Amino acid sequence: MPGQLLRLSDRLLNTPLLIHPAKAQIILGVLSGRIGVEGNLFEVDDSAEGPDASRFVGSSRRADGSSSLSRTVDGTAIIPVLDTLVNRGAWLDSRSGLTSYEGIAAQLRAAGSDPDVHAVLLDISSPGGESAGMAGLADLVRSVRSSKPVTAFVNDMAASAAYGIASAASEIVISPTSIVGSIGVVMLHADRSGELAAQGVKPTLIFAGSHKVDGNPFEPLSDAVRSDLQASVDAHYRQFLNTVAAGRGGKLTADMARATEARTFIGAEAIGLGLADRIASFDEVLASLAEARSTPTTRPSGRNARKGGISMSTEERAAAEVASAAPAATLQPARTEAPAPQSAVRLEEAVAAARLEERARIRAIVNCEAAEGRRAQALVLATETSLTLPEAEKILSASPKESRIDALAQRAGAGPEFGATREPERPDPSARTHEGWKRAIANANRRFERA
Fold this sequence. Notes:
The chain is of the alpha/beta class. It folds into 3 domains: about 1-285, 2-enoyl-CoA Hydratase, Chain A, domain 1; about 315-355, no CATH class; about 365-450, no CATH class. The protein is built from 16 helices and 11 strands. Strand 6 (about 120-130), helix 4 and strand 7 (about 150-160) form a beta-alpha-beta unit. The chain is flat, with a radius of gyration of 32 Å.
């Protein structure tokens, strides 16, 4: 029916969409030349269900005979996020080719308040959809995950709005071929003026308010209208980036999400860039959630509590070992143990930065003004402690000059320090050792403390 197509075009044209470009191209192809032509895009065979990979898993029927809004397996509620996503539509599902945020939200609220549900599994296979409503649903996912773990399993696409929903989960699990990303916004405008002119039709728009008919399909976009529409797209884009950052935290910041330039990534590459956490199968995820329920006090927290997949903790542990020496700003969280050049480069850069900072600290202490005449003690403080430059300067300033302990150092067999730019004058420096200076300084300091 023409009305159905007109309503569909109204929801898709001149409206910011969080949708994969390939899906947007299909929509344009369907609408092209069909507006005003009889047809019903929603006319489907009720017996033919959509590609719901988990439709055979779990049941909405409870042991007491009651039913729930979502299917459950061993206390895990399975909520499908499939096909094109729209804001309103209640119980639209994959048979219509659409799934509504409204319906997903109802299932999430029910699962979050159900005492028999201990975890939620989002079964995602979607190219995205409408921008309106996605951020609100992501907020709800984050709210539910504060009391129950919410796992997003991508089987096998979470693009644009679907990724926005997935990013709010406690963790994102993918298969080796899963496609994630497309963090961007697109707006479609159909200029039908040429088509109508060819048919001898000249529309006349009568309106009040200078912007009332901006973006209408009967005339090309003016520069001013295009600029206004671009501003709307940019605002939705910023909200999308902030939504992703709120869900992923330091694993995928707004700047990191923007740097993807709306590209999509597959498998281990997505993990390396922080768009996902680990690789596993749907059955493995279900089993790990059931195991977490049965042993809640003996399992580690976080994504390493999930078994049955590729653990991504190897590089994280290595990065943590560097964290004490490297400044926080130089560290990027590692996200995969699979060969991911980005993570390896970040880890090497962190290690190199830590080494450079430590060398700079040693040089600063040994060559500071307070080290004049106390070079050996400065070297010990620089190399045998983790004191900062101001802390070392305080100690050095309160200590005696080397002329008073030179004899002690010589008897101890101390040698010249390394790393100093100025060599103090003292007898037979070649015969001294670093260890000797340490003993001499320690003995001298004890004497002066008692004095």
